[in-house]
Amino acid sequence: MMRIKRFRELGVLIVLGVIVIILSIVSPVFLKPVNLVNIVRQTVEIGVMAIGMSFLIIAAEMDLSVGSIFGAAAMLGALLFKNEVNPTLVFIVMLLAGAAIGLVNGTLVAKAKMPAFIVTLGTMQIFRSIAYAISNGQSISVFPDKAMNSWVFGLGASVGVIPVQVIIMLILYVIAHIVMSKTKLGFDIYATGGNQKAARLAGINTDRIKIICFMLTGSLCALAGMISIAYLKSVPTTAGEGREMDVIAAVILGGAALSGGRGTILGTFIGAIIMSVVKNGMVLMSVPVFWQTGFIGVIIILAVLLDTWIGRKERIS
Asked: Are 70 and 271 in contact (CB under 8 A)?
């Protein structure tokens, strides 16, 4: 099993390497430092949300509302900033709002026994509507100096050439890796996704584990929204739209199984980088936006096919 896991991560790294080589040949701009920094910065939003999605998919669940949580939390934060609410309080409120949304999703899935696909498909629409209602359908920008000069907006700054948001993302991945590989919570998440009935018999409260995963996902989406505000200094009405597909693709590309019980945080990190590299490459090659979306769909299908093939190999071995 460990050999297959390492093979999977090595395979994803090889795919990333091949993509980088191809893009560096096709576009001379690709390997320029400015573009590389841009790629890493673009990875942050997908990467942070993908941590939560990794927890969920490993636990055999999924959240289609992550883009809407991102957008609703960002709009809420932007509105509070505009009304000169204390920036630290805004940050806390955003994280709590994300956790609360996750609690709603998790409770409906774990306690009401509703399929996560249906629940989060519904809440995706609900919280997208809430985001529009908060902003009255308008983008929010031009924040007061109190907010702009706070540590919260410092999340969009850089330490030398390294963006602060990248440092935060890397710290989060280290913490997530420790949680999933060294703690009881991580073990319980793997057990819940691997065999829920056996996990229950072993004394694991699988309902609580799922709710925790949904709440962590919600908070991480809100954090990604805060990072976006700090960097862009504005929140468009379409904030977060379509992000759910990018996030799910990153996790699946990283080797997590949709059936649950399998996946690594390192794999998710590599998957998130691949998504950003591919998107950046398509922009550099002037690929039309409508084809970019279709190409991401192809990537998702190929990733699932690969997951299915590896799953068969694991069962045979």
From this structure: no
Q: Report how many domains make up the chain.
A: 1
pLDDT tens by residue, 8-32: 667 778 888 888 999 999 888 999 9
Q: Which of 163, 132, 139 is nearest to 78 (CA)?
A: 139
**Structural domain boundaries enclosing 44:** 2-310
Q: Which pLDDT score is estimated for 158?
A: 87
pLDDT digits (tens, 9 = 90+) for 52-106: 999 999 999 999 999 999 999 999 999 999 999 999 999 999 999 999 999 999 9
Structure-token pair, residue 117: 């696909």
Q: How many CB atoms lie within 10 A of CB 221?
A: 37
Q: For residue 140, what are the β-bridge partners?
A: 235
Whole-number Å distance between alpha carbons of 115 and 121: 10
CA neighbor of 35 nearest in space, from 298, 309, 235, 277: 277
- Residue 294 in any domain: the answer is yes
Name the H helices within 86-205: 87-110, 116-135, 145-148, 164-182, 184-194, 196-201
CATH number at residue 181: 1.10.3470
pTM attached to this predicted model: 0.91
Nearest CA to 16 out of 314, 311, 281 is that of 281
Q: What digits encode the pLDDT tens for the residues 131-190?
A: 889 888 889 887 888 889 999 999 988 888 889 999 999 999 999 999 999 999 999 999
Structure tokens at 114: 């509703």
* 316 within some domain: no
For residue 98, tell me if it sits in a domain. Answer: yes
Question: Is residue 9 situated within a structural domain?
Answer: yes
CA atoms of 227 and 174, how far apart (whole Å): 18
The CA-based diameter of the chain, rounded to the nearest angstrom, is 62
Our measurement of the distance from residue 294's CA atom to the centroid of its chain's CA atoms, rounded to an integer in Å, reads 20
C-alpha to C-alpha distance for 28 and 242, rounded to whole angstroms: 29
Helix (H, G, I), strand (E, B) or coil at 158: strand
